Structure formats: C-alpha cells, structure tokens
C-alpha cells in the first residue's frame, strides 16, 4: 500500500486529486518531485493502467529521476508509465505516425549546430552577410515563430523593429524548405508537427486521447504556446491534466516560454482546481523572507508565501565592496574561512546574471589554489571534432543531409575546396537536387577544377560503402564507425589541427568518447540501429550538463542554477544593469522576469546567502560607478545584515595555512611520483 503519511496536507491533496484539471503551484523547495512521483504511483494503486499515464518534463535528467521515483514507489507497474521530455514524446509520436506527418520512416533530427549552419546557408542564399547579422539571433526568431504556431514572420512597421525581423522573414521559408529537402525535422518540429497532426485529424486525436487518459506536466511555467496546444489536443474534453510549476520561477521568456500559460491555466482548462505548496524544505527562514519580499513586487503572479518549520537561521549577508577584484577576493576568503569549519568545496556556489562577471572570480580562486567548475562553457557536442564525426555518421543514415555533407566534404582535406563546393551548391539549386546528387553528377557540373570530379567520386564511394555496411547490420555498429574513422584518418586530422600534443590528445579522446558512447548504447539494445542512436543523441545532447558531478566550487549563471541547491551561495553583481539586467541589444528588459531570476538565485541557498555588489566596475577599460540593485531595497530589515568586508575576511593566517596545505599536498604528490 502506498504510504502518504509522509506528505504534508497540501501535498497529500495534490496526490489524491486525480480527476479533472489541477494546477499545483509548487514554490521553490516545496517537494514537487515527491508530489509528482506519489501522484503517479497513487493512480496506479487505484487501478489506472500504466500505459494510460503520460508524464512530461523538460530534460532527460528530470525524466530519468521521475521514472526512477515512480518505479521505486509503484513497483513493476511504474516501469510502464510513459515518462519523457516533451521533445522525446513528440519524436515518439512522429515515429508512430510518420506517414500521416509526411515524413519517411527514418527521418533526421537537426541539432542546434545543424540548425545554425542551415540558417547561415539560407542567409547566404539571399546575400545576407552572417558576419554582420548574428545567425544565433536569426535562428531564435525562427524558433520563436515556430513555437508560437506561426507560418511566417511578420515584419514590424518602420521604427518599431530592426533589420533582424527582415532577415528572419526572408530566412524562415527557405529554412523550412531546406528541412523538407533533407527529410529532417528540427527540435521545434518535434512539438509543432504533432500539434498540427492531431489538430487536423479527428480520428488520430481520438486515438491518443483514449490512450493517454491522465496527463502530468512538470515545470509547467516553462511551456510555450506549441507545448500548451499539444496538451490541449491530448487532453480533449476529459481534461485530466495535472500541471505542476511555479510562476515565480518562470525565467525562460527569452527562449519562448510563456508565463501566461500558468497564470491563465483555468482559462485553458475550465473548472481547474488550484493547490499551493508553500512549505519549503530547503532554505532557512531568513533566506525565504528575502525571497518572498523580492518576488512580492511582481504584480502578475499567483501569490505564494514560502515558509519553513526549521527556524530563521543566519541573516542574509549583504556586502558592498570597492571594486570587482575586491568582490572576488572577498568570496575566496570567505570560502577559505568556511573550509576551516569543515565544509567541502562542493558546498559553495557563485552565481551571476551574466557570464561576463565570472573572470575576476576565476582568477581569485585560481590564485588561492581553490578547485572550481565553471559551467556554461563549450559543451561536448559543440566540439568541432565531435561534430565532424557525427556529420559522417549522419550521412550514413540520411544522405539528403546537406548541412552535414557541406561540413565534412573536405574534412580531412581531400581537394574539394570552398570554390568547388559553391559551384556544386549552385548547380544543385538550379537543378533542384540535393547536394549529394550534385556530387554524384559532378562531371556534369561546369567549371570544376581539374581532378575535382575524380576526388568527389572517391568521397561519394566512401559514403556509399559505409552506408551499406551500417544498413546491413552484419557488424558491430561501433566497429563500423571505428573503421570509418580510420579510413578517413580523422585521428591524424584532429591532431594536426592544433599545435600542442596535449590539445591533440584531448581531441582524440573526444572522438573515442563518442565511439564508446555508440558502443555502450548498442550493447544494451536487441537490434541497435545507427539512426535510432543519432535520434536519441540529438535529444540527449540538449540537456544541461549535471553541474553537481564534480568536486569543486560551482560557478554558473542564474539560468543554469535553476533546479539546484547549495549550502552556501554567493549571488554576486547585485547591481542595476546586471541584476536587473539592462535590455539586450536595444530590447526593453522584462523587469518581472529579472525579479524572478533574483528569486531563483536567492532560493538556491540552503544555509547561508551572500548578496555582493561593488562601487565601481571596469568596463571597456574604464572604471565606472555602479548603482546598487533595486532588489536590495526590498529585503526585510530583520532578515538581512550589512557586512563589513574587512571584519568578515578570513584572517591572513587562515589564508596562509590553506595555501601551505595545498603546497604541502602538491610536494607530497610530486615526491611520490619520483
């Protein structure tokens, strides 16, 4: 029997309310994951078929944790519950109904890098210089339009927009046409196309409404228009939708998330019940008091007041310092002092609104020989050598993938340069064929350099040979991939692309890491296919890396910190134009969302919270005065204290002792190595 006695009354009510639309407003640290897992388990205990429950969230990590918790509570039936991300569910549905969606049985998924390359190609087709216009921003506008269900991008009247509207309006139809030609979809299509499919086919809609009788959505405040439409199509008239989220933590408006979805839940799902989870199990009372006061100033919100049964704890420390180097030094000295209290490196996090603020802290921690992990740098799947190998593998599954083909046609160099590729592209467009077909018919393409057709033929033969080997499935997938790497000599290529042996070794390790990933995945499948692995990889690579897996002080942005918690948090740069941030590229800033970001940062702290700012900061070589953030004025007087940095700093002997202990350990290690 499922034990609900460990849940507080609102949590228990949320678990046991199973019929009709339900909005669970789960404040920071209020145990929402426990509620979600118990609710799914409760449905199964009541006799609901596992296959009729669909639970969706936003990352594979969150979906995996949810799946494990449900299985632990419900036993074997919990394993059969459909728990996934929105995008994974969309992929599954498109695979089930690929013919109705106008897709081949095997279709490619363009990942973020492929999408960007495609946008740049479309920009070049209309003679737009991607050095003058940021392709990332153009792609963001295209993505936003797709997530909002629009088929075109409207150009605003003169004086109301900027040239990016014009560029995106030109690129959008070409981008969509290119995806169709490649028999591919992008991430936005994994939601938009299922929505269109269900909306346009009543019988299909009824089929999936009958299959999924209970819907549960985590992080509902992060949904966009397309994801809301998908839920509506699946819910039908039954409307058994349980949405769990917190409008106070809606911080992704810049990428299309609509906080209005949670604020207007009852409008979308009439008759909805609302339950608020306000008891916090993470932070001290003073930290919560500051968080409550900051967020209370937002007018458009569903009012919640977080509380804890664990007492007020220490006051939140507000620290003003002269310059950014002083701020960074203060943080390093405080960490050194608290290390003396027995805290581990992983207990500490330094959070900032913008990555640009990280440099002084990295320097101060390096100078003090303190280990740290900076999150938000280049991801594994953004590394050029990884993308090169993935491009080869994608072409072995989807030969129409012009983006991947353009990337590796001359990697390693095989005498098919930019001028040759440009002529091939032009000929392909003029003759309405894909790029690979143009390569096959290279002798028909005029003005190619001497010998180019022969080199192209050898390259096409290589692709054909490996595509056939992967399709036959007579050999181990990883073994075929290793053969491909060896035949094109990618190892030599990546080593020669950098000057140091160490950098070359890292690139080789990255290639080997990808091959090991394929091997490990294939060993766990009865009938593994390269196409399926590439689809899963495209989805999995979107997840944020797990920042809690390494043993160092965490440095990260507020956006990256959402969902995490640390015993000690330093929220730095609490100044006007940083938090709240100034408008980006001329756009008006969203003060409500900036206030929500501050709230997220404050509620990451469990025991101690520092809010730091400086009087002057260097920008473009000039020392400029800084203004304290307006959010500091909101803090309750009895919940925070202003700290004198000189009095709070670690005594010189503590810092010296820490440095000496580090050097002693280093000497011992070096001595042992001898």
Folded structure, characterized:
This protein is α/β, with parallel strands linked by helices and 674 residues long. It has 29 helices and 17 strands. The strands form 4 sheets. Strands 11-12-10-13-14-9-17 form a 7-stranded parallel sheet. Strand 15 and strand 16 form a beta hairpin. Helix 5 crosses helix 9, helix 7 (135-147) crosses helix 8 (163-181) and helix 15 crosses helix 16 (359-367). It is globular and about 80 Å long.
Describe the structure using short key phrases.
6-stranded parallel β-sheet, single chain, 7-stranded parallel β-sheet, 49% helix, 674 residues
Layout of helices and strands:
Elements: H1 9-16, E1 22-26, H2 32-45, E2 53-57, H3 60-74, H4 76-79, E3 82-85, H5 86-96, E4 108-109, H6 112-125, H7 135-147, H8 163-181, E5 184-185, H9 189-200, H10 202-211, E6 214-217, H11 225-235, E7 241-245, H12 260-263, H13 265-268, E8 273-277, H14 285-295, E9 316-321, H15 324-339, E10 348-352, H16 359-367, E11 372-374, H17 384-395, H18 402-408, H19 418-430, H20 435-440, H21 452-472, H22 477-488, H23 490-496, H24 501-523, H25 530-540, E12 553-557, H26 558-561, E13 566-571, H27 591-602, E14 605-614, E15 616-619, E16 622-625, E17 640-643, H28 645-648, H29 652-673
């Amino acid at each position: 029997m499922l034990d609900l006695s460990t849940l507080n009354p609102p949590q228990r009510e949320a678990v046991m309310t199973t019929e009709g639309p339900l909005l669970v407003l789960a404040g920071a640290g209020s145990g929402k994951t426990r509620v979600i897992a118990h609710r799914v388990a409760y449905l199964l205990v009541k006799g609901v078929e596992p296959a009729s429950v669909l639970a969706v969230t936003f990352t594979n990590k969150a979906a995996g944790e949810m799946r494990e918790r449900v299985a632990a509570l419900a036993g074997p039936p919990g394993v059969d519950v459909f728990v996934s991300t929105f995008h994974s569910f969309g992929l599954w549905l498109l695979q089930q109904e690929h013919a109705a969606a106008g897709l081949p049985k095997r279709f490619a998924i363009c990942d973020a890098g492929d999408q960007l390359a495609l946008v740049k190609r479309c920009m070049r087709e209309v003679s737009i210089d991607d050095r003058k216009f940021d392709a990332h921003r153009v792609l963001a506008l295209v993505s936003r339009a797709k997530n909002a269900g629009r088929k075109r991008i409207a150009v605003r009247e003169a004086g109301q927009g900027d040239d990016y509207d014009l560029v995106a309006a030109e690129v959008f139809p070409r981008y969509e046409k290119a995806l169709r030609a490649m028999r591919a979809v992008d991430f936005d299509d994994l939601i938009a196309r299922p929505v269109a499919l269900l909306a346009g086919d009543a019988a299909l809609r009824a089929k999936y409404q009958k299959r999924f009788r209970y819907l549960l959505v985590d992080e509902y405040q992060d949904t966009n228009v397309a994801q809301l439409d998908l839920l509506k199509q699946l819910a039908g008239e039954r409307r058994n939708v349980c949405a769990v989220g917190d409008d106070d933590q809606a911080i992704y408006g810049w990428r299309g998330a609509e906080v209005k979805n949670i604020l207007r839940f009852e409008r979308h799902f009439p008759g909805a019940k609302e339950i608020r989870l306000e008891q916090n199990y993470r932070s001290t009372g003073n930290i919560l008091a500051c968080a409550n006061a900051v967020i209370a100033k937002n007018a458009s919100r569903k009012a919640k007041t977080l509380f804890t049964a664990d007492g007020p704890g220490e006051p939140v420390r507000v620290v003003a310092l002269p310059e950014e180097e002083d701020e960074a030094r203060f943080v390093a000295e405080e960490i050194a002092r608290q290390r003396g209290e027995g805290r581990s490196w992983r207990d500490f996090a330094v959070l900032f609104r913008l990555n640009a603020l990280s440099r002084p802290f990295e320097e101060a921690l390096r100078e003090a020989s303190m280990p740290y992990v900076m999150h938000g740098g280049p991801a594994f799947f953004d590394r050029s050598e990884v993308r090169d190998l993935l491009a080869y593998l994608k072409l072995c599954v989807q030969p129409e993938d012009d983006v991947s083909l353009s990337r590796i046609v001359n990697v390693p160099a095989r005498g098919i340069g930019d001028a040759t590729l440009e002529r091939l592209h032009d000929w392909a467009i003029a003759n309405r064929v894909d790029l690979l077909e143009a390569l096959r018919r290279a002798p028909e393409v005029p003005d190619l350099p001497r010998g180019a057709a022969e080199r192209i033929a050898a390259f096409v033969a290589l692709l054909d040979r490996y595509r056939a080997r992967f399709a036959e499935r007579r050999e181990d997938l990883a073994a075929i991939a290793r053969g491909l790497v060896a035949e094109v000599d990618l190892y030599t290529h990546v080593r020669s692309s950098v000057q140091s042996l160490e950098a070359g070794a890292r690139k080789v390790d990255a290639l080997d890491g990808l091959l090991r990933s394929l091997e490990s995945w294939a060993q766990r499948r009865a009938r593994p296919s390269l196409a399926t692995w590439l689809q899963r990889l495209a989805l999995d690579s979107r997840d944020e890396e797990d920042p809690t897996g390494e043993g160092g002080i965490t440095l990260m942005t507020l956006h990256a910190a959402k969902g995490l918690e640390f015993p000690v948090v330093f929220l730095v740069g609490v100044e006007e134009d940083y938090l709240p941030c100034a408008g980006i590229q001329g756009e008006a800033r969203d003060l409500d969302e900036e206030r929500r970001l501050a709230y997220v940062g404050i509620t990451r702290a469990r025991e101690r919270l520092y809010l730091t700012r400086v009087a002057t900061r260097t920008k473009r070589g000039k020392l400029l005065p800084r203004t304290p953030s307006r959010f500091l004025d909101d803090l309750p007087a009895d919940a925070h204290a202003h700290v004198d940095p000189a009095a709070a700093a670690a005594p010189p002997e503590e810092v010296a002792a820490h440095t000496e202990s580090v050097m002693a350990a280093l000497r011992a290690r070096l001595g042992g190595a001898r």
